[in-house]
Amino acid sequence: MHLPPPVDWIIMHSCLGHHFLLVLRKQEKYEGHQQFFATMMLIGTPSQADNFTYKLELNRNQRRLTWEATPRSVLDCVDSVITDGDCLVLNASLAQLFSENGSLAIGIAISASNTDSHESQM
């Protein structure tokens, strides 16, 4: 949390026969106003990404914040996902509410969007 922006953290998660990337970005919207952006990207095509749903969850001090969406393909640019606002967006004070010792723990759940729904959590 305390690294100066811009900075990206990327974690790969493999489940349901595919590879996903959790991208967490810290950037300054304008001087002194820092924001955090989190999204899941599928290493695959946009039509493959449409077959999944992901959930990001922040949970601390009797507070819970959840974001659910369809992942975007890595063929889409992360910058455009963030510019479009198609991701979890936190300002610095909200991120601070969910941080512990300078770290922001994000729970991840990925499920298949079809009727044979399978779910994988991290």
Automatic annotation (TrEMBL):
InterPro entries: 7-in-absentia-prot_TRAF-dom, SINA-like_animal, TRAF-like. Gene3D superfamilies: Apoptosis, Tumor Necrosis Factor Receptor Associated Protein 2, Chain A. It catalyses: S-ubiquitinyl-[E2 ubiquitin-conjugating enzyme]-L-cysteine + [acceptor protein]-L-lysine = [E2 ubiquitin-conjugating enzyme]-L-cysteine + N(6)-ubiquitinyl-[acceptor protein]-L-lysine. Its EC number is 2.3.2.27. GO terms for cellular component: cytoplasm. Pathway: Protein modification; protein ubiquitination. Pfam families: Sina_TRAF. It is an enzyme of class 2 (transferase). Belongs to the SINA (Seven in absentia) family. This is E3 ubiquitin-protein ligase.
